[in-house]
Specification:
This protein is of the alpha+beta class. The protein is 44% helix and 26% strand. It contains seven helices and ten strands. It has a six-stranded antiparallel β-sheet with strand order 2-1-6-5-4-3. Strands 7-8 form a two-stranded antiparallel sheet. It has a two-stranded antiparallel sheet with strand order 9-10. Strand 1 (71-75) and strand 2 (81-84) form a beta hairpin. The longest helix is centred in the N-terminal third of the chain and has 66 residues, at 2-67. The chain is elongated and about 110 Å long.
Length: 280
């Protein structure tokens, strides 16, 4: 027994490193197998996701694009249309073949409030583009209808190479017509206000001017654009300034009538009569 114990005591220190190596090797092998299985699962997931993404692009991309717009379009490197989705035909009652092969600025499309210059510069620099244009669309081939469309586009690259633009289009006729009507109403309002010989003004509760017609310049010699934002009190004779400062309108039914001295740009003083009412 003593010889066996002495043999074990003699050789165990020599065998211990090898035993540790065996255990460590087994652990590393198990870890490698586990990692390979995890990696295989990840590859399988990525392959499934890639397949789903390809399926999504092929079968649903056009539907999603037209759900977020009325149609989508594609151009070549010269910005000639090469593709317009079927939504263009349905919305504009125009066959895409009449548009394909041409850039938008060579069509009978007129930019709203501008020309094609800024758009073409952006295209040349390969920047995102956005523009609203006016055109006439045909109903049953005879009746011409005013129409406004909005184009949005982004440069498209494949493997780092520029291949053209991808974009969407929307029929914005109702919004554009409403904006045109608002602008015409504003222009008519300004025309009427500026045709009046009396000064028409609007101000905040502290008498800071927010609107003036041209009669203000005729009366005072002060430029309208340089007067806006200033208080009406600044243009009164010092003895009359406190009177207007104390005149506070607090109710829509309140009305101010006052005869005050106005100081013109030339320094001349002129008596004026002010009538003011609080806006509801």
């Amino acid at each position: 027994m003593e010889s066996e114990a002495s043999f074990f005591a003699l050789f165990f220190p020599l065998l211990l490193p090898w035993l540790l190596l065996v255990v460590l090797g087994a652990l590393l092998t198990a870890l490698i197998i586990r990692r390979r299985r995890q990696f295989a699962r990840i590859l399988a997931q990525e392959e499934r996701f890639s397949h789903e993404a390809r399926h999504f692009r092929d079968d649903e991309f056009r539907l999603l694009a037209e759900l977020t717009s009325d149609w989508f379009w594609k151009t070549d490197t010269e910005h000639n249309f090469v593709l317009l989705s079927d939504g263009f035909r349905k919305r504009m009652r125009t066959q895409p073949k009449r548009v394909v092969g041409l850039p938008p600025w060579r069509l009978d499309w007129k930019p709203l409030g501008e020309d094609w210059t800024n758009y073409r510069v952006a295209v040349k620099q390969r920047l995102p583009v956005r523009i609203t244009v006016h055109l006439l669309k045909y109903y049953k081939g005879v009746l011409k209808i005013n129409c406004y469309i909005e184009l949005n586009g982004r440069p498209h690259y494949v493997d780092g190479v520029f291949v053209g633009y991808l974009g969407t289009g929307r029929d914005v006729t109702l919004a554009a017509m409403a904006e045109n009507e608002r602008r015409r109403s504003h222009e008519l309002y300004e025309s009427v206000v500026n045709s009046v010989r009396e000064v028409v003004f609007r101000c905040d509760p502290d008498w800071h001017l927010t609107l003036l017609n041209r009669a203000w310049y005729d009366l005072t010699g002060h430029q309208v654009d340089k007067t806006l934002g200033h208080s009406l009190i600044e243009y009164l004779h010092p003895e009359d300034q406190v009177r207007l400062e104390d005149a506070k309108l607090v109710d829509p039914a309140d009305e101010l009538h006052a005869t005050l001295r106005l100081v013109k740009r030339s320094g001349e003083t002129r008596w004026i009569e002010i009538t003011a009412r609080m806006l509801p």
